Known about the structure:
Blueprint: H1 2-14, H2 18-21, H3 31-42, H4 47-61, H5 67-81, H6 85-98, H7 103-115, H8 119-132, H9 137-149, H10 153-166
Helix pairs in contact: 3-4, 5-6, 5-7, 6-7, 7-8, 8-9, 9-10
Amino acid sequence: xxxxxxxxxxxxxxxxxxxxxxxxxxxxxxxxxxxxxxxxxxxxxxxxxxxxxxxxxxxxxxxxxxxxxxxxxxxxxxxxxxxxxxxxxxxxxxxxxxxxxxxxxxxxxxxxxxxxxxxxxxxxxxxxxxxxxxxxxxxxxxxxxxxxxxxxxxxxxxxxxxxxxxxxxxxxxxxxxxxxxxxx
Length: 184
C-alpha cells in the first residue's frame, strides 16, 4: 500500500497518471527452459513428441510478466478466438503499450492482423517479437507466411527455413519450396 501511495505521489509530481506510473516488470528469464525445449524439438523422434514440446514452448511464451499483462493477453486471445478482431487488437495494443518488452504481445497482435489480411502490419509486429525472442519459431513461421502473402516469396522461404531450423516439425514445412539439389 505504501508503495502504491509512493508511486501515485511520484506520478503526480512528474505529471504522469498513477496508471502510467505502474510499469510492466521484465519478462521472466526462461532462456534455459527454452534452450532445453528447442534442443529436444530438433531431435524429436516424431510429430507427436514435437507437438508436446511445442505446447511447452507455448506455455513459456504465453506466461505474461504479471497478472495485469496476463489478463490482457488472455482477453485478446479469447476475443481473437471469437473472431472479435477489433476487441482482440485493442487488448493486444494495451498489452504492447504496457509491456513493450514482452514478445508475445507483438506476436498475438501480428496473428490478428494476419487473419485480417493486414500482412504488412503483421510483419512489423513479428519482426519486433523476433527481436525480443529470436527463438520464437511460431513468430518466425508467421513472418514467413506474411512475407509470402505480400509476394515476397524468397524472403518468406528464408524465414520459413529459419523457423524449421528451430522446429523441424512445424506444419508450415509443407510450404517449403525445395531448391535445386536440396532434399526436403
